[in-house]
Every structure is written in structure tokens, then in C-alpha cells.
Amino acid sequence: MLAERLARSGSISLFGSVFAAVGAFVLTALVGNGAGAYGTGLFFQAIAVFTIVSQILRLGTSTGIVRQLAGQDAFERRGEAWRTVVIAVVPVTVIAASVSALLSLNAVPVANWLASPGEEESLTALLRTMAPFIAIAAVLGVLQMAVRMIRGVTVFTMLQSILLPASRLAAVAVVIWLTGTVSQYVLAWMIPLPLWLVVTCVVLAVPLVRDWRRRHETTTRFRDEAASFWSFSSARAVGAGLETALEWADVLIVAALASPEAAGIYAVATRTIQAGQVVDRSMRVAVSPTISALLAQGRHAEASTLHTRVTRAMILATWPFYLLLATLGPAVLGIFGPEFREGAIVLAILAGAMMVQSAAGMLQSIILQGGKSSWQMYNKSLALGLNIGLNLLLVPVLGIVGAAITWAVGIIAETLVAAWQVHRRMGVSLAPRRLLFAMALAAVIYGIGGLAARVAFGDSLLVLVVAGTALTAVYAVTLWALRVRLDIRTLWAQLPVLSRFA
What we know:
With 502 residues, this protein is mainly α. The protein is built from 21 helices and no strands. It has helices at residues 2-56, 61-74, 81-105, 107-114, 120-150, 153-177, 182-190, 193-212, 222-257, 260-274, 278-296, 300-327, 329-333, 344-360, 363-369, 373-398, 400-425, 436-457, 461-481, 488-494, 496-501. The protein starts with a helix and ends with a helix.
């Protein structure tokens, strides 16, 4: 029964993640071709600030909601879900609204701090455009995670991964078609947020009212539940903010120390590489509640087995993508416009780092769902410190290549620390030897195959399409031939969608 639930959740979540990733890729291609490297740099500067601030303003509640509601479900406690949502949403709403107002009032000094010389006025306009939407985004993020736990993966995926990205893409496409400005691109990207906030509230209304009517069944005091929730989420708030800052700080630093053009090229490369995280994100959504329940019940061996199987699936699904980016990067970046092809070295460096991260599996989910949010906070602090320090040192000398090296060092360092914590301190065994064959298989077919195609035929888009198709066909046949050796039957039984996408 557990396997069937995981398979269904994984399938739905992965579909939504793939849809969102494709939408983000198309959106980036539209902005890149419509605004060029300079305009793309300004666009992603604004998105970076928006994303960092709105994520911080969720105050760590997204993971806190998953953990709290998963625990209630594991021990069949009823009449408490509505309180968890209230405990999470009210502080976020008040604090986020205040910060949005402050950002609008202080857009000039913030822009002077973040912008490269001569670009302060453009960034000021972008900051004022986005300020009213930051609070909406923060509250929406909290409520959507409540939807995930209360209404299930399907509704959550439709709202977060399909409808919101699709509406953003449509809005930005219309503005680009009308030859709008970069500031209008940013506004179009944010315009759908109020609509989906209202829809999310409607979706949650009935189940929360039903749960409120069962409030007499709980024996846990409101004050105790709030203390438990925020003792976990307060540390996670810092960790989540650091995590988002790690994803976007380098874009801001490149823009400030180099130029908007360099930031645009770098942002396109990093957004492209992050499309490979769709499997990681879908697995977090699908498996995190199960891991949380297993850890809460002390079933560490089962959590270890589940994690190893999911990690193998992640390698089989993601390494081909990263290896194609590393070997045929110029062809991929050429989709966004000819200016962006010079980011191919960046793409190759980042692809290698992301392969290391995906091979480590869902370490962050295990740490968080095991109640160790403070560990993640320390890990992210270390990684962010490395990120800022090395960026300030390397970007003035090496430009976007220095930023890529910095990101790779931060990711690998954080992954190694998290792996030690999970394996040694939490008792969730990691089994890297069981993953080596899957790694070697992807590396040989896509790594050597991709390099051979580039050397023989060049790095045009046609070569990318033909080589990618041919290598994928070989890979699929090989997986089928080695299905017993790779334990694909077990993977198919638990998470069949991953086998289909591998």
C-alpha cells in the first residue's frame, strides 16, 4: 500500500515538476531572446530579490507544516490541522506585509547597494514594482504547502507546478509580444499571484472548517502546539532563507561586480542547470511525509532503504540531463540567443556539482523531517559564507566562471557535511556502493557519447537534438537489458514514473 501511494504521488509530483521546469525554460528563452543579455540580467536581478525576500518571509513554515501535519496523520490526531495553518499563516502575513511596505519606501538605497554603477534607477523601478506582491507570494507559499498536506499531491501540483507557472508564462509572453519593457516583464511575472492566493484559500476552506468542527477531539493545547511549531520553524526560517540566498546571491553579486550582461548570461546558465532538479523536488514532495513518519516512529532501516532506492532513481533520471549540458552546453544556451553561448563553461562546472548533489539523494529532507532544522541552518550558513566570500574573491578576476566555481564548491561542501550528519548522527545509512553502477552507466553513455558527438559534429542545436535522441535510445535499451542488475523492478514497483523518465 505504501509503495502504491509513493508511486502515485511520485508520478503526479514529477509530472508537475517537469511541467514547471519546461515552463521556466520557455520563459527564460522568451526573456533572453526578447530582452538580450542586458535586459535578462535586470529581469533576474529583480526575480532574485523577490525570491529571496519572499522565501525568507515564509519563516520556515512550509517544512514546519509538512512535519506537523505528517505527525498528526501518523498518530491519527484530528482537530489540529486548522490550528497549525493559523499558527503558520498569521505571523507570516503580518511580517510580510510590513517588509513589503519597507521595501517600497526604501527602494532607492536598496537599489544603490545592489546595482552596478549606472543601473540604480532601473533597479529602483523594478523594486517598487515588485514590493506589493512580496507579501502575497509569502502567504501563498505557506497556504500551498497546507494544500499539499490537506488536499493531497494532485491539487497541490495543479496549483503550484502547473497553473501558476502557466499563467506567468502566458502573461510574460503577451508583454513580450507587445514589446514591453523589462519592468513590465517583471510585473507580468507577478500579476497572477493574487488570483492564485484567492483560489488556494477557497480550496482549503472546506477541509479546514471540517477539521475545526472536530477541535474537541484534540488534547493538545494551542499554546503547546504553537511552541512546538515555531521551535522547529524558527531555525528552518533561517535555513530556508539561506537556501534561497544560495540559489540567487551569485546572480546579484555578478550584477553588482561585473555587469547586467554578465548577470544575464550567468542567470540563464544557472536557471538551465536547475531544470535538472525537477526529480529532486518531486521526490521531496512525494516522499518527505513518508520519511517524516518513518523517522517519527523510529523505523530508520526502512527510511534508509527508501532513500537508497529513490537516490538510485534520481541518478538514473538526472545524470543524463547534466551530462548533456556539460558536453553540449553551447547548443543548449544558444536557444536563449547567441550572446548566451559563452556561458557553456559555467554550465559544465555547475553540471558536475549538481551530479554530486543528486548522487547524495534527499539529505536535506531527512535532516528536516528528522527534526534537525538547526543542522540545516548551520550547513546553509557555511555554504552561504563560502558563496559570498569566494564570489567576492573570484568574480572580479574570473567573472562568471569564478561565480560558477564558487557555487560548485559551496554545493559539494554542504553535501559532504549533510551526508556525514545523516549517516553518522541520524543513523540513516547511506549506501554509495549500491549507486556506483548507475552512475557509471549514465557517465559512459551520455558523458563519452556526448563528447564524441561534439568532437565529430560540432555543437549546433541539430547535433544536440540528434545526439540526445540517439543516446537516450541506447540508454533506454541498456536499462532494459540491465533491469535486474539495477533493481529496476523494485523501482518500478515503488516509483514507476521514474523508470519511465529514466
